[in-house]
Amino acid sequence: MRNRRSLIKSKEKHSTNRITVSTLYDDVNENVVRVMNELGHSSDLTVRVIESPHQKTLRAAIIHLDGLADDSIINENIVDPLIQWLKENDQVLTFKEEQTSHIFTVSQLTVVENWQEFVSAVLTGDTAVLLNGSPKAIIASTKKMQSRAITEPSSQTVIRGPKDSFTENLRTNTSLIRARIQNPNVRLESMKVGKSLKPM
Fold it and tell me: What is the arithmetic mean of pLDDT over 34-62?
């Protein structure tokens, strides 16, 4: 009996020692494939890979969820400055805070190495920038603020629970689901329905 207890304790110690924090890869393509597989190739997952005109190995991936992140902030403060920087520089882009703050002009920038923190930031509406050759991610604050309040449903009202209704456009409706359920297991799939009008 004592030998059995000592064996169980040794197994528990061995299992706790094997628990490691998952980190990002230093290859952009591997991280892109991994996040697409983890989010189930969801239709609202947007991935844009930008390559340097001077070096094909100098690549960056910009990852965000459509509907949760602000497209104007991403294009004006992340995509355009990064493309311009890659055209003007042929050196390797590093994760120095003073350098990234000069390139990306957003209100808040953080650097993460943990995979769970990276996925969590994307699920909450932030934009992740991955650079080839570095196992880190730049998280830019790009959460989208709704231009107007989401209207309550005129019928089928409830006393308890959320008052949101799916009366907005497609991406606003999907963003309501993402905001309520920040889980990578949520899958969104787009399809065409109908033959005459062909609505999306």
Answer: 90
